[in-house]
Amino acid sequence: MTTEAQSVAAKLKSSGLLRSQALIGGKWVDSYDGKTIKVYNPATGEVITDVACMGGKETNDAISSAYDAFSSWSKLTAAERSKCLRKWYDLIMAHKEELGELMTLEQGKPLKEAIGEVSYGAGFIEFSAEEAKRIYGDIIPSPLADRRLFVLKQPVGVVGAITPWNFPLAMITRKVGPALACGCTVVIKPSELTPLTALAAAELSLQAGIPPGVVNVVMGNASDIGDALLASPQVRKLTFTGSTIVGKKLMAGAAATVKKVSLELGGNAPCIIFDDADIEVALKGALATKFRNTGQTCVCANRILVQEGIYEKFANAFAKAVQSMKVGDGFSEGVEQGPLINEAAVKKVESFVEDATSKGAKVLVGGKRHSLGMTFYEPTVVTGVNSEMLLSREEVFGPVAPLLKFKTEEDAIHMANDTNAGLAAYIFSTNIQRAWRVTEALEYGIVGVNEGLVSTEVAPFGGVKQSGLGREGSKYGLDEYLEMKYVCLGSMS
Asked: Where in the cell is it found (predicted)?
């Protein structure tokens, strides 16, 4: 590794946060057959470390561990669970720099952005600690004088949580925080590309006093781990963030044991910029939502729809701003964009840009691999994009901003909704009536109005149509980990 990467790795190892084993039943264990997988630094291609590569057997043991721990964890008072979560939050925040460095090392995002994710991710633990004490039931007025009707909310049971590589901490905490607050126990399967942040967070959960078996982490063979989680009748809930294709397979597999399922799947976010928008606000918002995490987020603006009256003006200003973005290793000062996660991601971006240009689109800025090599790709702006191009139909999941022209408000709404996805959408307009009309007409679970960064632990995050089921974050996110029990109490005289 480079000197800087070696220094970071050595510091993390000495702090006990650089883990390479899985966590099952409160113990750090190797895979049963001794297999390992390499974790790479995407900025350099160098190996950070080898981690245990696990499959069905280890996952079943993790499930058993979580199932055994459920009986005691679920019986703790909400106040006791809240205290454990609060300690976990405090430890994450106390180690936010180290966790940010670890995230940059294995995922590639700029260090400032990584540390920001740690604070954002920790927010889900803090919010869950607070909401644990506010899981209320209900009393229903009975139609009969000798009966009393109650609704209890109880934890669903063992939860399988499958998370992606693009947000190695936040995608875990926004699932695990509410699960634990409700009294559930968890088996986490982080991405094999970025398991180190998950393992560090799990280490801190032990230090926080969360009992053994409540939090388990297994990584390795994705299909074997997923199959074990689906097949086990002890796993009563599956929560997944990732591609729509995989989400559909998990949803089908969960049918055999009729598990509860939450799915946060792919998006195709439109960013609609009307000709009455404040150009500076629209530029700032579009840049933030498009190029955050090198365009590798499910709520990134995948299509930027610009009204014809300001199309040229906006395109030129946007291209100028994109051209000035600094690309580089996430540890370098002032870097705004890091590498893509791997070679496959770069090839996908290249194929989408090639498809667009072959059909008449024009590259204003970028459009090729960066001179830094590896998996760096130039921040790119493409004009003349239409609905027949891949850039319009599918998520590019990279630093490519396609600009599409529209005439009327009705055209914009039609273009925005012309997709199977429905996760996030963005509107830029100074007309309040228009903003409300379009917001209500958009078929999306999240809408940002004159704002490009919409994610927060206090609001419900999730989509409609084929972007998923359920919500994460906010008080509504806790309901995903609870069952309602109706109690009819008759006369005892």
From this structure: Mitochondrion
- pLDDT for 458: 97
Name the 3-class secondary structure at 266: coil
> 407 vs 320, 412, 415, 439, 442, CA distance in Å?
24, 8, 11, 18, 17
For residue range 175-227, what is the model confidence (pLDDT) as tens digits? 999 999 999 999 999 999 999 999 999 999 999 999 999 999 999 999 999 99
Is 117 considered catalytic here? no
Please give the pLDDT value at position 413. Answer: 98
List the Cα angle 241/224/244 in 5-degree steps. 30
> C-alpha distances in angstroms, 118 versus 165, 172, 207, 232, 255?
14, 11, 17, 32, 34
Name residue, tokens 């009992």: 211
For 117-130, the pLDDT digits (tens) are 999 999 999 999 99
**What backbone phi and psi angles, to 5 degrees, belong to 237?**
-150, 140
Q: Can you list the domains of the chain with their CATH numbers? A: 6-264 (3.40.605.10), 268-447 (3.40.309.10)
Ramachandran angles phi, psi of 51, nearest 5°: -120, 160
The one catalytic residue in 117, 126, 264, 378 is 264
